Amino acid sequence: MPFRTRSAYAFLAPYLLVFATFWVWPIIDSFLISFQNTRINPWKYSFQANWGRLFYDPAFYNALYNTLIILVIQVPVMIALATVMAVLLNSPLLKARPLFRFAFFAPVVVGEVAYAAVFRLMFSLDFGIINKMISAVGFSPISWFDNANAAMAVIILAVTWRWAGYNAIIILAGLQAIPDDVYEAATLDRVNKTQQFFHITLPLLKPIILFCVVLSVIGTMQLFTEPFLITNRGGPGGGTETLGLFLYRQGFTSLNFGYASAIAYTMAALAVVISFFNLWIGRDPK
């Protein structure tokens, strides 16, 4: 092996050692733990204790259902909103564009605990601003956190508020990569702005939008902070408990590490399958 190659590997060795110790090995070890019954001492191999339970656990299916509801409703709405925001931010008619871009991106910078606390206060039954606005127009206040559907709506609104701007900035970068010549040629052919958006902008943005969808799918499958902090650990009655929160409850509340590992690998597998399905749907026809 040449000296320069050995030197390169020598410089990389500390990082590779840390990566293998704190990333690769925990992943492998977690997979092995998922096949062990960790509720007994010493731990013993038992496929049924974790993977067998997973297929018959109503709590798991409840968490899966809640996660898929958020995925099906929140992700399309957020991506559509982010696309519209990106188009508006790219408009030459908009003044102070850098300021608006920062404003839309700012929610990602806000601490998760802080923004979750703000949303919980906003939707409070007694003194929340949302219920005050509802009362002002003559409707009865809504007990947001005592109804599963209402609590789920709060979760969806919170996640959309936090991540729509982030995706809009990514889509905006894709918009700015589209050559102006394409739009000039379309204008000369008397193609109006609406037709340009649906027949030029969206097709050229498809790879960027697919990238945002895949990121959003992975993030939704791991959703934890919002149901934990906003709806008080997935309440009411598990109505907003997600897979991420269910994993936390099994691993760090019940200390059932084997079952938590099985849940984690199931989450990862679902994220991969759904992401590949989205990529397959959005593939270019041959």
From TrEMBL:
Q: What is its main location?
A: membrane
Q: Which family does it belong to?
A: Belongs to the binding-protein-dependent transport system permease family.
Query: In what way does this protein cross or attach to the membrane?
Result: Multi-pass membrane protein
* Protein name according to UniProt: Lactose/L-arabinose transport system permease protein
The species this protein belongs to is: Rhizobium aethiopicum
Q: Which UniProt keywords apply?
A: Cell membrane, Membrane, Transmembrane, Transmembrane helix, Transport
Q: Which Gene3D superfamilies match?
A: MetI-like (1.10.3720.10)
Can you give the residue ranges of the ABC transmembrane type-1 domain? 64-278
